[in-house]
Design goal:
Elements lengths: L6 E6 L8 E7 L2 E7 L12 H5 L14 E4 L2 E4 L2 H19 L4 E4 L6 H15 L4 E2 L7 H10 L10 H5 L2 E5 L3 H4 L1 H12 L3 E5 L12 E3 L6 H14 L5 H7 E2 L1 H8 L4 H8 L3 H12 L4 E5 L1 H4 L4 H15 L9 E3 L6 H6 L16 H11 L11 H10 L4 E5 L3 H4 L3 H10 L2 E6 L11 E4 L8 E4 L4 E5 L12 H11 L9 H11 L8 H4 L4 E2 L24 E2 L18 E6 L16 H4 L5 E3 L1 H7 L6 E5 L4 E8 L7 E5 L27 E7 L20
Parallel strand pairs: 6-7, 6-14, 8-9, 8-12, 9-10, 11-20, 12-13, 14-15, 15-16, 21-25, 22-24
Antiparallel strand pairs: 1-2, 2-3, 4-5, 4-16, 17-18, 18-19, 21-26, 22-25, 23-24, 23-26
């Protein structure tokens, strides 16, 4: 096969958080095909329809190939010198007039660890603010918060290999065959070989067909279900007493709390049958080794972070932590949503989640960078938008995020962007967000850059450039270091490898990480100075004072939105197999032919009551806005609920999402939105949603 190609480069996929290793093949100076790396530790010679085939976006005709600056109500091509001068002049002026905290930045969870580290250093050292965040805020920040509270570290406790080593697995609020297809396939194969699988979700996901039991629960009731499972584990004598006594604290408070969560009471809240709750608890707790996997169906709720703590409770009750086949595996959505946070692109922490309020930590970075920094956290993403609207935030640097498409309460986000004095966007395409920019900087796709990604199992893997950025576009590393230098802070890096060397130097738990050591197999942090990594966390102790894990006695509380007579259905949002997030990349590939538009899933009983026929266009209204799309009648969704994704700008799903957010992390409550659904022609008068221009796939 190699004779057909000019060159082959091994790299890491830039789609979801599985972290598949890929072989990118070049011919005639461009990438012509991609195949899975047979030795990939996460994918083991497999890849999905996105990773293998959706690479044409990199050579799409509408790639950004030169800087653009706003002029006379539109954009014109500019030189790099002019574009960077505009950025530095605006930031310098705003900083002088309003202080550094009038500027904020967003790092990209699609970019490398090195890019994200450079971005947070730019904001902290070149500009002088902790106003830096990334898209983990709107997806898995509740996971990070809860895992640190319960166990001490912000990451999966094991590896995807634990799926095959497990006897049972509980999947809650996650749909791996759509959102994380290679892991979904591994779960499916394990279930065929005997893994006892329990699924809990408002939709009957594909993996439910391979499991022992499916619990169709109401959105926003995860906490009740988890407390109900804990109730049965305790009631029926399934607690691992030795583990609880030796390695945890707080058990009695949890036992007292969950006494009221009988299966019958939980059935009333969740809609899942009491007998099913009992059976699920026994399947999980009686297994010698059991895993729990979860996703945004757990985190994107008003009490998402508390629900992850309750997941930790269940694992602690049964001793399913720190052993092969007994892992907690949060499935991260974007390719580097784990790494972007690990490496300091957050308003309250440096690398390894060490707080900016810790004087010793901040002092060490001050000495390394030659700057002075505050000991107060910066603004989170929602706070940035609020501050822009009220006028206290004057400028933003948005790197690789399309917040006008992906973030909740779209009308408010757009108002924030319009309120800024200055906005710079760094991206590979024009997006809904770049419409509001003053300067657009043309950046690099994952196939054009060098560095590392960290997947959902804490594994750092190398990313190697297999093509050059098109035209005058530059790598993100080059852009960010150049902007920082223009602002007066020369970081002194020559290559992304230099960045990782600094990260290792400044971060004790990453001390043994280097590009050379990562090699083809990757390294799972923590990594000791001698290069020894950690596939399984907490084998002996937890990373909390005293070495014990913490139970959390947290009751069920209702979600932030409720169905009523005006809005009688609950909308749940999620992913489709063929596309990825805002669709910026996949809609510019052949995947658009596989799925050219989206639809609303409606249960047959609801469709009959509403007078909605399969394929009929409907209006979906929430308390925030209205969208239109065709209906698909299916029993995959539970009665009383509807489902759609967020991949298509012309649909603008997030117009429906309100400001409700997780109580601890400000992660938006995407998963519980009260809506009405009516056939077009019968809906109340409402403005039509904004529609983007159709995307044309590359040749």
């Amino acid at each position: 096969m190699s004779e057909r190609f000019e060159a082959t480069t091994t790299t890491t996929c830039g789609y979801c958080g599985v972290g598949c290793r890929l072989e990118a093949h070049r011919a005639d100076g461009r990438i012509v095909s991609i195949s899975p790396a047979m030795d990939g530790p996460a994918n083991k010679g497999h890849t999905c329809v996105k990773g293998r085939f959706a690479h044409q976006f990199a050579r799409s005709r509408d790639r950004l190939t030169a800087p653009l600056v706003r002029e006379s109500g539109g954009f014109r091509i500019a030189s790099w010198e002019e574009a960077i001068a505009r950025v530095t002049e605006a930031f310098t002026r705003i900083k002088a007039e309003h202080g550094p905290d009038a500027i904020a930045g967003l790092a990209s969870s699609r970019a490398t660890n090195e890019d994200c580290y450079v971005m947070q250093r730019l904001m902290r050292a070149a500009i002088g603010t902790h106003n830096i965040d990334n898209c983990s805020r709107v997806c898995h920040s509740p996971t990070s918060f809860a895992l640190r509270k319960a166990f001490g570290l912000s990451g999966a406790t094991g590896s995807f290999d634990d799926i095959e080593a497990a006897d049972a697995a509980l999947l809650i609020g996650v749909n791996p065959t759509q959102g994380h297809p290679v892991v979904g396939a591994r779960i499916k194969q394990a279930a065929i070989r005997g893994l006892k699988l329990v699924t809990a979700d408002p939709r009957r996901i594909e993996l439910a067909d391979y499991g022992q039991l499916h619990l169709g629960i109401r959105p926003g009731t995860n906490a009740a279900l988890l407390n109900g499972l804990a109730h049965v584990v305790i009631r029926d004598g399934l607690v691992d007493r030795d583990f609880v006594e030796k390695r945890t604290e707080g058990y009695d408070a949890v036992a007292e709390l969950v006494a009221a969560y009988t299966p019958e009471n939980v059935e009333e809240i969740t809609g899942a049958p009491a007998a099913g709750i009992e059976r699920a608890a026994h399947l999980y707790a009686e297994a010698e080794r059991a895993c729990i996997l979860w996703g945004l169906g757990v985190t994107e709720h008003l009490y998402g972070s508390e629900c992850v703590q309750l997941i930790c409770n269940l694992a602690l009750l049964t001793g399913n932590v720190g052993r092969p086949g007994a892992a907690l595996l949060p499935l991260r959505g974007q390719n580097n949503v784990q790494g972007s946070s690990d490496h300091g692109a957050l308003p309250d922490t440096f690398t390894d989640y060490r707080p900016v309020t810790d004087d010793a930590v901040t002092s060490a970075f001050e000495e390394r960078w030659g700057v002075t920094m505050k000991r107060e956290r910066g603004m989170k993403i929602p706070e940035m938008f609020d501050a822009a609207v009220d006028g206290s935030l004057k400028a933003m640097y948005i790197f690789g995020e399309d917040v006008a498409q992906t973030d909740p309460d779209t009308t408010h986000v757009i108002q924030a962007l319009e309120s800024l004095d200055f906005l710079v966007c760094q991206d590979i395409f024009e997006t809904e967000t770049t419409k509001y920019a003053d300067v657009i900087l043309p950046a690099s796709a994952f196939l054009e850059k060098t560095g590392t990604f960290t997947n959902a199992e804490r594994r750092l893997q190398l990313v190697s450039a297999s093509a050059e950025p098109p035209g005058a576009a530059r790598t993100d590393f080059e852009i960010l270091t150049t902007v920082s230098r223009a602002l007066g802070h020369d970081m002194g890096y020559e290559t992304p490898s230099d960045v990782m060397d600094e990260i290792a130097e400044m971060t004790p738990r990453y001390a043994g990480i280097s590009h050379e050591r990562i090699g083809r197999a990757g390294l799972q942090w923590p990594v000791a100075p001698d290069g020894t990594d950690t596939p399984i966390l907490y084998t002996d102790r937890f990373e909390l004072p005293g070495g014990r894990a913490h139970f959390a006695p947290l009751p069920y509380k209702p979600p932030g939105d409720q169905a009523d007579a005006e809005f009688p259905l609950i909308l749940v949002t999620g992913r489709r197999l063929e596309h990825y997030n805002a669709g910026t990349m996949t809609r510019r590939t052949g995947n658009l032919e596989l799925m050219s538009s989206d639809w609303l899933e409606v249960h047959p009983a609801d469709a009959a009551a509403l007078g909605v026929a399969d394929g009929q266009e409907v209006a979906v209204r929430s308390r925030r806005g209205m969208i239109r799309l065709p209906a698909r009648v299916t029993e995959r969704i539970e009665e009383g609920h509807v489902f759609t994704a967020f991949h298509f700008p012309e649909v603008r799903t997030n117009l429906l999402i309100g400001p409700s957010a997780d109580v601890n992390t400000s992660c938006p409550e995407y998963k519980v939105v009260a809506v009405s659904v009516q056939p077009i022609g019968a809906e109340r008068s409402a403005p039509a949603p904004a529609r983007a221009e159709p995307m044309v796939p590359a040749d």
